[in-house]
């Protein structure tokens, strides 16, 4: 006799900083998860005082409180995907690396957040080496933009050929897959390149959206990738779907005034209902 099926939500956990103006960080991640039909959870690494004009202050969360947040979530839920954003310091990275080893989630997306859209520093110097050594080898995908990829590899990136070279250098640091975001390259097209070990690179192109509302687009892209993975899509398809989501969100919010600086995109232009999946016995 067949028993009645039980369900759960597809889930994603963001481990990142809080953005008081709501356009980036934890707030953008949770909006993205919800918009794509995924149940989102969070572990906050830092509290920031910021708005669309810039970051005014950062207060890191105590390592034991960060660990407590992560433990509480993993001990109670099945987590399909994890994304990290602003980790800020070495202590937070050590906590996250230990948690990834303990709980071993299937999908781990690391957005190596270093500088905010407004130009504020979001990662301490001693944290950079820790991120490379402790997180890159444990990660499904890292998602650096051009300045971040340049800093991590030590080379200048002005072309797709340079992006290809940077990806190989990042593979040498232990990465399994790299999405280099080409939004800082010249041209009318935004070109991103996805690199996976022993596979051909995949290029994603999109028209440049004329808008100042770009606050939190990197956070949103990485959380959209995590959400799509949680829904069961492949890595390549998840990147494609995430790119499409961000492009539509930028277009939907392009002509809206939100704050006096780099405003947020429209995360909720077409929200999906929360999905369900059968609990496997």
From TrEMBL:
Gene3D superfamilies, sorted: 3.40.1190.20
EC number(s) stated in the UniProt entry for this protein: 2.7.1.49
Pathway recorded for this protein: Cofactor biosynthesis; thiamine diphosphate biosynthesis
Keywords: Kinase, Transferase
Top enzyme category: transferase
InterPro entries reported in the protein's UniProt record: HMP/HMP-P_kinase_dom (IPR004399), PM/HMP-P_kinase-1 (IPR013749), Ribokinase-like (IPR029056)
A Pfam family that the UniProt record links to this protein: Phos_pyr_kin
GO molecular function: hydroxymethylpyrimidine kinase activity; phosphomethylpyrimidine kinase activity
Domain Pyridoxamine kinase/Phosphomethylpyrimidine kinase, first and last residues per copy: 19-266
Coiled-coil ranges per UniProt: none
PANTHER family per record: HYDROXYMETHYLPYRIMIDINE_PHOSPHOMETHYLPYRIMIDINE KINASE THI20-RELATED, PHOSPHOMETHYLPYRIMIDINE KINASE
Protein name as annotated: hydroxymethylpyrimidine kinase
Organism: Parabacteroides faecalis
Lineage start: Bacteria, Pseudomonadati, Bacteroidota, Bacteroidia, Bacteroidales
UniProt gene name: thiD
């Amino acid at each position: 006799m067949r028993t009645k099926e039980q369900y759960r939500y597809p889930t994603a956990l963001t481990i990142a900083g809080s953005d008081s103006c709501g356009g980036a960080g934890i707030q953008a991640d949770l909006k993205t998860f919800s918009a794509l039909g995924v149940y989102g959870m969070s572990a906050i690494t830092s509290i920031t005082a910021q708005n669309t004009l810039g970051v005014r202050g950062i207060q890191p969360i105590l390592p034991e409180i960060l660990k407590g947040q992560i433990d509480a979530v993993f001990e109670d839920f099945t987590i399909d995907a994890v994304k990290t954003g602003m980790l800020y310091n070495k202590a937070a990275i050590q906590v996250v690396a230990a948690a990834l080893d303990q709980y071993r989630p299937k999908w781990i997306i690391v957005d190596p957040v270093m500088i905010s859209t407004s130009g504020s520093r979001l990662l301490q110097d001693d944290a950079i080496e820790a991120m490379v050594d402790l997180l890159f080898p444990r990660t499904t995908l890292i998602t650096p933009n051009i300045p971040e990829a340049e800093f991590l590899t030590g080379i200048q990136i002005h072309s797709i050929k340079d992006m290809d070279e940077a990806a190989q250098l990042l593979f040498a640091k232990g990465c399994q897959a790299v999405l280099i975001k080409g939004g800082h390259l010249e041209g009318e097209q935004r070109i991103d390149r996805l690199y996976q070990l022993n596979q051909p690179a995949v290029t994603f192109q999109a028209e440049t959206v004329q808008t100042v509302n770009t606050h939190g687009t990197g956070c949103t892209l990485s959380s959209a990738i995590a959400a799509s993975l949680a829904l069961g899509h492949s890595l390549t398809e998840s990147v494609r779907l995430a790119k499409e989501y961000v492009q539509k969100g930028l277009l939907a919010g392009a002509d809206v005034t939100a704050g006096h600086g780099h405003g947020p995109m429209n995360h909720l232009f077409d929200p999906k209902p929360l999905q369900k999946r059968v609990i496997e016995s």
